[in-house]
Design goal:
It is a single chain. The chain is mainly β. It has a domain of 186 residues: Pectate Lyase C-like (3 Solenoid). It is built from two helices and 24 strands. It has a 16-stranded parallel beta sheet that branches. It is globular, with a radius of gyration of 21 Å. The structure holds 2-acetamido-2-deoxy-beta-D-glucopyranose (3 copies). The site of one 2-acetamido-2-deoxy-beta-D-glucopyranose (NAG) has 3 residues, from loops.
């Protein structure tokens, strides 16, 4: 046997060792894929899968692999998940969340008072969230009725909130029946949102497709948004935002900068480009909304 054959055998041996040890979750090539079903999620649309999502996040966020640890939400299941926070910082430099199944929100009466985010990601860098799954906010009880939120600060009722998530990419998902905002990005840099669909009835009061605030270098493209209020709202502190080939409508309020200056605040949004977008039956296409200064 020459030295090259021995090298080959060694590599094959290592590969086998790797496959075996990955399956038993130990060894130097750690597990890289984290499936919610392995954490006890039922995915029947009724059982509370929140604890499974909490546990899978803990392992994913703690994974220290060289590759990209991936959380899998498999197709053909519907996971009922209550309000949940996915906090970083995580150990890996990249994360991948693949949502092929559906995720269902709790009804309004079980949301906490003044706690207005359902799926909240915070302090997670370089994360990709993709897949063909449906994020269903079951938000109809919020539409046109913000009773009990007066005096609460922060975001409107939001299905998926990304806060301080630099390098975020969101791709392919479908959002439906959001309570207020479907996808809200705040205090994040270098964000790409593409190929998403927002499909919520046109008479759903105050529902926005995408909201951005205090975010820098954001690219939104090739998406279809139907919601009751703004298609995309670009709020204070946003800079270098490009929106390209987005279809908004019907009866959307279009792409808005603002509202800015609520409560007499000094706010700005700058370098916003909107290219090649389509507005079907919109009450406006692109506009700037500001509050009057009260002296
Ligand atoms: C508005 O929402 C509150 C809180 O969920 C609820 O108690 C009330 O019945 C709702 N009002 C209407 C008119 O639907
Ligand atoms: C937005 O478009 C401009 C002009 O095409 C380009 O220079 C800039 O890099 C783009 N910004 C982002 C965040 O993609
Ligand atoms: C907008 O569409 C025109 C015509 O198809 C194309 O020439 C242009 O490059 C597009 N602009 C952007 C920013 O995609």
């Amino acid at each position: 046997m020459n030295i090259f054959m021995m090298q080959d055998l060694l590599i094959i041996g290592l590969l086998i060792f790797c496959i075996v040890s990955c399956n038993s979750w130990v060894g130097f090539c750690q597990q890289n894929t984290f499936n919610v079903l392995q954490y006890g999620a039922k995915g029947d649309g009724i059982s509370d899968d929140t604890p499974a999502f909490e546990k899978v996040w803990e392992d994913l966020c703690g994974a220290q692999n060289k590759g990209t640890p991936m959380l899998v939400v498999p197709a053909r299941y519907t996971f009922f998940v209550r309000q949940i926070t996915f906090s970083g910082p995580c150990k890996s430099q990249n994360l991948h969340i693949q949502i092929k199944g559906n995720i269902l929100a709790p009804k309004r009466d079980s949301w906490g008072t003044c706690s207005k985010r359902w799926l909240h990601f915070i302090n997670v860098k370089q994360m990709t969230v993709d897949g063909s799954g449906v994020i269903n906010g079951q938000g109809d009880a919020w539409w046109g009725n913000l009773t009990g939120t007066v005096g609460c600060t922060g975001v409107p009722p939001t299905a998926m909130l990304f806060e301080r998530c630099d390098g975020l990419q969101v791709r392919g998902l479908t959002f439906t029946n959001g309570p207020g905002s479907h996808l809200y990005v705040v205090h994040s840099e270098d964000v790409t949102i593409s190929h998403i669909v927002v499909n919520t009835p046109e008479d759903s009061h105050n529902t926005d497709g995408i909201d951005l605030s205090n975010s820098v270098r954001v690219n939104v493209y090739d998406s279809e948004i139907q919601s009751g209020d703004d298609c995309i709202a670009i709020k204070g502190g946003s800079q270098f935002v490009n929106v390209t080939r987005v279809t908004c409508g019907p009866k959307t309020h279009g792409i808005s900068v603002g509202s800015l200056g609520g409560g007499g605040e000094y706010e700005f949004a700058e370098h916003v480009n909107v290219y090649n977008c389509t507005f079907n039956g919109a009450i406006s296409a692109a506009r700037v909304k500001t509050w009057p200064v009260i002296l």
